[in-house]
Amino acid sequence: FFVFYTIIIYYLISSIKYNWFFIDFENYAPYMNMDILNPQENDGIGLIIEPGYTWNEMRENVMNSCLKKKFHIILDGDHKTDEVYRKILDLLNSELNLDEITSLFVIVGTLYFIEATPLNMEWRTQLLQKTFNYTDTLSPMHLHLATKRLWTSLKKKETDVFNILELCNQMVIISETARAISICLMWTILSEITETPSEMYCFRQFMKLLEMLNNIENETLQEEENTKIVYILVRVLSYLINVILCDAQNEDIIKAGYRMYFKYTSSFLKQLLNWCENFKKTIDSCPKPKQIQTDWDLRMMITEHISFNIINVLQDRIEQMSAPDYT
After folding, report:
1. Which domain of life is it from (predicted)?
2. What is the DSSP string of 209-278?
């Protein structure tokens, strides 16, 4: 999938000079997403995909929520997906408070991955959209609680990060609230990678990004056993840069009082571009892995991803900001 994705991007850039700054995420999202259901053989992606959750994990999330009395069909061991689906729809048609709707975010986010196949993804996506469209608030407390609850409930083990990455790629095109929560989740992942402490699960100032990235040592990026971490870092960095630089799609969030978190200057973008170019050089200079070819293939795809989805995007935005305005 990643190889196919890279070919598509290369074609767009070389043949029609696609403007990455004005990305339409509804069209871009299918290419941005990692296809957790159809990994290609021998492309390195199999090393990083750990898709899905189990009914036992769903039961645990329900038990730890305020909705446990309303989901006895799960707690009693009756795992009929259609009944769980109908129960969620009933709840979405009722009055839910902040505690209940954020708990439902977790339940639906878990269900999205349980026994998922290409043939049953449509209703899962629709349910995800309906759930995150329940509320349109952008209050700091709502974003904090929703992000914290999703992170602490959906990330029980290290490989769960890949599920959260996929979930965020769906959320970013659902609504402003879902988009905001997905951005907060990405900052949370980056905070963990860079060991940057935070008391709130919320936005970070975009211009603080370099400070966080500078906490990562080059040796860490080069070590063979950290290939998965490097991949996650690239996914998160690409996500934040593409989403935050799409100014027009963040208007409602900015107007809600979060302008300072989306501010950036041409000077800052140039510094960030320099870091990303050095980052790519660091990955390129890694010695070939001793054990498996697929690990090497994955690192090569990571560098291509950095080039097309990070460096090119930054270069385009810097060029646009420096161009004279004749209007």
Report:
1. Eukaryota
2. HHHHHTTS-HHHHH-GGGHHHHHHHHHHHHHHHHHHH-GGGGHHHIIIIIGGGS---HHHHHHHHHHHHH
For residue 294, name the pLDDT band (cuts at 50, 70, 90).
low
Residue ranges per domain, the chain?
Answer: 2-321
Residue with tokens 């998965």: 228
Residue matched to tokens 């420096």: 322
Q: What is the pLDDT of residues 163-222, one digit of tens each?
A: 999 999 999 999 999 999 999 999 999 999 999 988 899 999 999 999 999 999 888 888
Q: What tokens does 78 get?
A: 């009756």
Q: Quote the tokens at residue 100.
A: 């209940």
- First-last CA distance in the chain: 42
Whether the Cβ atoms of residue 45 and residue 302 lie closer than 8 Å to each other: no
